Amino acid sequence: MRRDKCTNILLIAILALSLSIACGSAAAEQPEFIQIIDVDTYEKTLRAGESVTYNWTIRNIDSVADLTISAEVRLANDGWTAELSAYEFTLAPGELTSVTATVHAPFEKGDATSNLTVVFDVFEDGYLVQVASVSASTEILGAFGSANKVLGLFDNPLPSPLDNEWGIFLLDVVLWLGIALGIAYIMDAVAYGFTRKTTTMLDDIILGIIRTRMLLLVFAFGVVNSLDALHEHIPLDLRDLVLTAYSVVVVLVIFYLAYKLFKQILVYYGKIIAKKTTSNIDDVLIPVVEKVGVVVIGIAALGYVLDIMSVDLTMFVAGGVVISMVLAFAAQETISNFFSGIFLLLDRPFAEGDMIILSDGDWCDVRRIGLRTTRLYRLSDATMISLPNNRLVNDKIVRVSNVTDPARVNVDVGVAYGSDPKKVRKTITKAIEACPYALLKDEARKPIIMFDSMGDSALLFKIICWINDNTKRVEAKDNLVEEIYLKLTEAGIEIPFPQRVVTIKKE
Fold first, then answer.
1. What are the structural domain ranges in the chain?
2. CA distance 466 to 478
């Protein structure tokens, strides 16, 4: 009896094993009609109340039949919603299509995760031939998911009527203000311990620039995130608008910090260095660098702001290139003057305060060399004139002051025929000795009195006299001419006026 029972049990086990193997083989040999291609990542995180998408590509791998595919979406948690880009579609042999699932997350009190499953039923000629499925996991970030907790960490301790989301919002704002003040206090303490050991003002300048702006950024961040507590009262579009505005403010504050650091540190120390140098190039270029830096920082800030606002910058870039070419062509004279000004500052053919003679003979005092024009004081009519720098670079300019060699003056004198040349020389020598500007002690530069020629009405003498002050060239010539005239008059030497003898013949 016992042997028969054992035999029966063994037969039943063998039969069951055979059936399971047969079923498994049949299942393993089930044909596939579609291929599901992963084209995305399927584990994503998002903020409470926002949406996320998942994408798959479906391909008909059957070489003969058209397939009709019905899709169904399933979610594991309540409060979550999902939708598909297509719930039913038909694929020809070898054809493929894209399916997108959009998952909407609720506002949760804490961290939450939901598993998405998309089931595809494949039909051929109305018969179900394949069932396939894909899945994805979505997680709400805890910092934003805990919208109904103070700072997302603990419950609201306030009594009625603030034992709700408004109380949470107020507590969040107050606590974020405290956090910002705490950060400022820590920064002050750390900075004080560091800066008292240094003698430079650089660290004090940096701290003064960063401190207030950092406090405002931290507090603004807290206020924006505190709005999560009011998600039931604030539409999602309005909240996104606030986040965009906050991002714009952050960009503006950061670039304002960059501007202040650039101006207060680089330009400030640049001006200090400029005061210690004898060259004017740094005094002129530093304001230019300051203005160029401000423009560059402003353009960069504008680009970031437009990018945050989802404005296409392609047209701006293309337009900027065209405008730059037009401006370069239109302002070529200004650009030429600019580089000529740089040349004048670097090569220093003359400097501010020098006396120069222009190509047209005007005597001018150089008052200021700019990057575009140079301002001159013209002595002939006591007026201020501005000349383009490219003219000063290309024209012949005579520098008569601040030169290493002594200056000289030339005087032409005519005396009457019959005058003794030796007496004339002695008289002119006395006049030179009486001139306070004459350079008499330099053996290499003694005055020269030359009998130049015999003119129509006078004997012509040329006087070359070196002077002891380059800046007194005009005064020296005036005094020397006066002394020569007085000495010649005292010596009885006639200075003739032009005479002509006209003979009339009678026929």
1. 1-30, 34-145, 165-317, 335-399, 408-490
2. 14
